[in-house]
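Example record used in the benchmark description.
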Amino acid sequence: MNADQRKFWNSLFVPGLFVIMIWLVKAVEWIFGIDLGIYGLYPLQWKGLIGIITSPFLHADLAHISANTIPLFVLLAMLFYFYREIAWPVFLLIWVLTNIWVWFLARDGIHIGSSGIIYGLASFLFISGIIRRDTRLMALTLLISFLYGGMIWGIFPQLFPQMHISWESHLMGIVAGIILAFYYRHSGPKRKVYEWEDEDDDDNDNTGYPYWSEPDDTSYN
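Model output (C-alpha cells):
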C-alpha cells in the first residue's frame, strides 16, 4: 500500500467512527425503547448545555439519521483527506461553535441532529477551496456545489413552516465554516505551483516590476 492509499484509508477512520457512534446511539434507543432526545440542546437553559456536545449524536427517526449519514461521512472524509493537518481543530470548532451559537440564539425547544456540522463542513470546504485557488480543491469545491448546493435552502424557515427544522443549526454551521475557512487560510494544503508558473514568475522578475418548533417540541437538523 503506497502513501496515497494509506492517506485515503486513514481519512475514512474518523468519519466512519463518528457515523457508527451515531447509529449506535439510535440502536440503543430502539433496543431499550427510550428517547435520548432529552439530552438535546435547549437554548438558554442550563440543562441544555450538555446538548452542545451530545446533540449531533441524537436523531428523531430513521429518516432523519439516514439523511445525515452520507453527507456527514463524505464531508468529514474530504476534510481529513485534504486538510489532514488542521482537520481535528476545524471539525471540533465547527461542532462547538455551531452549537454554542444555537444555544444562545435559537428558538425554544430541543435541537438535535448533526446537520449543523454538515453545513459547517460544506461551507468550510467550499470557501477554503476558493481561497486557496488549488486545482484539486477547486474541483472539490465544484463537487460540493453540485452535490450539496441545495443545502442553502435549509437556512430559510419560511420554506418549511410545518416542519421541525432547526434552521438555526444550519445557519450557524455555515457561518462557523466560513469563519474557519478564512482563519485557517494559511494552514493546511498549499497550492501546487507548476513549472510554467515558475517560468512566468521568473520572467516578471526580470522585467523589474513588483508585484431554529415550539417550546417542548424538538427541532432536528
